[in-house]
Fold these 2 entries.
Entry 1:
Amino acid sequence: MLRGLSHAGLGNLQSDEQLIELASRYGFQAVDIDAGGLIARHGLEQARAQLEEKGIVIGSIGLPVEWRTTEEEFRSSLKHLAPAAEAAAALGCTSCCTYVLPSTDQNAAHFMALATRRLRLCAQILGAYGIRLGLEFVGPHHLRTNWANPFIWTLAETLDWIDTIGESNVGLLFDSFHWYTNEHSIADIEALRPEQIVHVHINDAPAVPVAEVLDNGRLYPGEGVIDLAGFLAALNRIGYKGAVTQEILAAEAPQGSPEELVQRSKAGFDKVYAAAGI
Amino acid sequence: MLRGLSHAGLGNLQSDEQLIELASRYGFQAVDIDAGGLIARHGLEQARAQLEEKGIVIGSIGLPVEWRTTEEEFRSSLKHLAPAAEAAAALGCTSCCTYVLPSTDQNAAHFMALATRRLRLCAQILGAYGIRLGLEFVGPHHLRTNWANPFIWTLAETLDWIDTIGESNVGLLFDSFHWYTNEHSIADIEALRPEQIVHVHINDAPAVPVAEVLDNGRLYPGEGVIDLAGFLAALNRIGYKGAVTQEILAAEAPQGSPEELVQRSKAGFDKVYAAAGI
Amino acid sequence: MLRGLSHAGLGNLQSDEQLIELASRYGFQAVDIDAGGLIARHGLEQARAQLEEKGIVIGSIGLPVEWRTTEEEFRSSLKHLAPAAEAAAALGCTSCCTYVLPSTDQNAAHFMALATRRLRLCAQILGAYGIRLGLEFVGPHHLRTNWANPFIWTLAETLDWIDTIGESNVGLLFDSFHWYTNEHSIADIEALRPEQIVHVHINDAPAVPVAEVLDNGRLYPGEGVIDLAGFLAALNRIGYKGAVTQEILAAEAPQGSPEELVQRSKAGFDKVYAAAGI
Amino acid sequence: MLRGLSHAGLGNLQSDEQLIELASRYGFQAVDIDAGGLIARHGLEQARAQLEEKGIVIGSIGLPVEWRTTEEEFRSSLKHLAPAAEAAAALGCTSCCTYVLPSTDQNAAHFMALATRRLRLCAQILGAYGIRLGLEFVGPHHLRTNWANPFIWTLAETLDWIDTIGESNVGLLFDSFHWYTNEHSIADIEALRPEQIVHVHINDAPAVPVAEVLDNGRLYPGEGVIDLAGFLAALNRIGYKGAVTQEILAAEAPQGSPEELVQRSKAGFDKVYAAAGI
């Protein structure tokens, strides 16, 4: 499993280049960045060289398609997907992710039909470039009622949905934070085949009742109460070998320079990886 | 467009054979029956001959798969589909239909995902036999709250769902009763392409506020307030050429012998077809 | 059915704008042009206005994806499809076409697998914009052995392939020239449902043995031996309502100015439409 | 990886029950048998108990659908698939396999289109029962010209085809005999992800030029020249954990009782597994 960083939780990072540099300096192997931007700024060869020199791979790109709102916005944004996928593939990235909110102001069944059609098409396009689509179920309880109608949020529902989408390159973005807030178990992880997991996020949660955990109240790995050692050990046991990327969404920006925050992240990763015995 | 009859609304019919006989005698051209049963009782050649002699085609068969409940029941019933489709195809029937309830006790989004996957598979199997799958949206308002969570019930939502199912042999079972209770318009029909319609039901409704119309309070064509002349004329205008089948679901059995009820149905069809100018 | 023109056979046309102008002046209703280019040159509103003012619609755009060669070229060209489809849709065009050569230097079965996957993805992307994909089977006999291995060229094979591609927005580009060189019949047309036809080409052929007809030896409608009256009447009978577009591929450029050649085309259309009684 | 036996190569086996008994006695863990037949003879509970008691799982069932000939035969046999899949699933079997001949008397491209559609539907039905479809590429050179037109036979072509079929539950039946006769390499195995392999066959080949190896000239594992140690070690290295089943197709029945032949098979498995270090 590759240790990964994203911008979230690292303060005022200036650029993807800085993230690559810091990730490399502190023993991380993956970053979640915009592959197309890196190529646009440096050219393909230089972008590749930069990643190789630093020993960094791109863990995942974000899905550049608006699939949650109107058909017009979906269509209009869809044209960004093939270029983004081409760029990611050119840099060796094989993962593209999006999150699934647990409630919606739309009719839930109708929205599920629309979302299924739209995400299937995204997966089909990504598949042409050898890229997989990861769907992130979202666990914090307050989001289940944040919009008018409940959508889906559990692992089992998400796996059913992936089945319905019906493309072989669709899987999970599996985030320890949502696993925890959904009160899923180690056994739930062990029941997965590794190819069902496209990407992993790792975050910790504060010691409050699980129903009160806030989506933007995430902690650095090892600084909270989630059994991240168990989480990582189970992922390792089933054979997952991809990136495990930190994404610290927080209401208040953390104190410290990006370098200090990467050091803090490294300490957290060291702690939970050691506890997991990997 | 073919005038069609189903068992519903014809009292104590003894058999599909009696329905075929009465339909033929009173100028109908289609019946909705169980194709496999007819073949089982008479053999394929005799079944074919009986239909041909009477000038009757099978308008549609019902979907013999339980797609609304558990995965176990779905799997267990799925094996009935290929034989049913084979029988229907052998008798020249190219339509298989099922209805979609407008609310559900399941999580609506999750059920939509499950239903999409199950009905897609049904469509795929039917497609191997040249048979189309018709989905019937259901309009009566009381059913929208009959179960805990709203599902879908409008024409537009159903068309979106058909798009999501993504098989070219899926379309609408279009029932005048649901068109009326949804307060859809003539223009809504005119916006359809004929190949989007797999089968048509024709029923009338009593003169009560539309929100109070009951699903099992259907009237014979021409005996109620639905603009069936406009409905039929619009279907004819867009080029629909399939069966238009009566399905009188009523809380109380209608008075009269099956033959009298077929005569009453014929009078209704004569009236609304004449009013439609077809 | 709309009378349509393409650049092929009209000599030294200066631009799509000139084609629109001439088509309009001589009673045509459709042109096959590059929708994206028109918008790029005039802006969307002006492009729309120009078409409306001239009473011209875009019959079809060409598929801007290289699906016949390597995976690299396919991927690299795929990103052009969404923008092209968005442009076409913005101008009201619902058709995008490509031709299928009847032989290949690749292993035919393997190429069929690759082509199926690639064209399915093209259809899926086009479908998001409400655009259909038309596949043109190609009849001239000399092309069947022009490359090492036979591929497919008949109507029946192409319909089977469309079934395999399995997207509801895929159909035929039906060209009278290939219908003739394949020695297909009027009954073959009558067996089609109109929605199976995405676009129609009309061309005539010289009075040589059918096996000797050359793909680039096409004549203006009415100047050759193809039963174009029967062809058009049959299309009309089954309910086809789209464009019928001339595409005169010829080894030598025809004599005359574009305007003279459009006049000649008009005379040909007048003749065969009259003979068809439409 | 589970040691598996099929009927092929074990002489006059009386029944699947005898195969289960002998497999168990000599340290095998899997058999390829007809799950539905076992249930029909014993009932589901007894069938399950018999397998459990003997420590045997069903490695794979054969595909009971005729996908290689006419549409009529395909349709007619399709109805056997759901019951077969239901039976297999009830006994815990998750694999169903079929072989792909490397040449065909049909037009190769057209047959590829038909086969793609048919096998996709088979995969879709199997998927409803949690069963995967394994496609076996066939390597012996003489079969490439045994029928008029070349089809596909390499690993790479088969993987492309699986991609085209486009269902996530389709993968390879990977047979050492075809790997060898195709002159594929250890690196070709190492390039596979384990989930791409549905089932494995193990057979050996005589010391004749590879182009002269006959499909029905197979030897027991360890009695020929194939690098089965390398084959098994590579499969183990990539994480394949399913059955490795012997299928000795031979022109002449082997000498000896079934029990003696199972003993001979065991000796072969012991030898090659030991050489593979597993």
Entry 2:
Amino acid sequence: MALYFEDLLVGYTDSFGSITVDRDEVIAFATAYDPQAFHLSDEGGAANPIFGRLAASGWHTAAMTMRMAIDHWSTIGVQSRGAAGLEELSWPKPTYPGDTLRAEAEVLEARPLTSLPDLGVLKVRTIVFNQHDQPVMRQIANLLIQRRPA
Amino acid sequence: MALYFEDLLVGYTDSFGSITVDRDEVIAFATAYDPQAFHLSDEGGAANPIFGRLAASGWHTAAMTMRMAIDHWSTIGVQSRGAAGLEELSWPKPTYPGDTLRAEAEVLEARPLTSLPDLGVLKVRTIVFNQHDQPVMRQIANLLIQRRPA
């Protein structure tokens, strides 16, 4: 099965996930890419007025969200070719080790890509929730999707 | 040395990095978080009309940029407490294995955080360049910075 640009209409909604946030992976990701005290240890997290305890790097939450999306897209056949970028990326609540994340997505806009006529651009809003149904990440991304072959 | 919110005025500019993009790490990051063919192998990259060859996940570029920022901030003493989010995150050019990245940042706005008076919010634009001085990532982030103790 393959889902092309033409199949993913404005208003298309989808839910995907879940993934449970692993404490060792939180520390390993932060050690590699975001080594701030509040992403590395319980003590560092407790000293942070926003987090209060060990919290995942926002980039790690974004990366886990991408993984949930790719696993889902490969199941349903979305013909992704990459992304141009995001218009919004925010973390309304922290992500903590042990949280279970899931995502809800909606296609907001769709337009052909004039510079590469085999591709279209979908503007997609994705909201990531924890197990308490609190939003922990919001993003609006411009995704590059293969157009249906003629 | 410590740099607080009050030390990082609008118009403050900074340059940091570099980091050289490791091919094995590109594949390892993508395997964990963004397993799309063009981030996993030469063949997958060659088949992608944007990338043309194996390219890093944009999230990996973002993560490497964060690492460059943290290494720099820890040297100059920036009292970061996290980030609320980004208003823009884009990848104007691909990042390829072997590229050497560096970043330039500028403070665009500064405001106290009313909900947590010990913190201030800096809006910072960061542009990441490759060794050809081509921009490979742009971001505008709202960073949470400790205010100077009274």
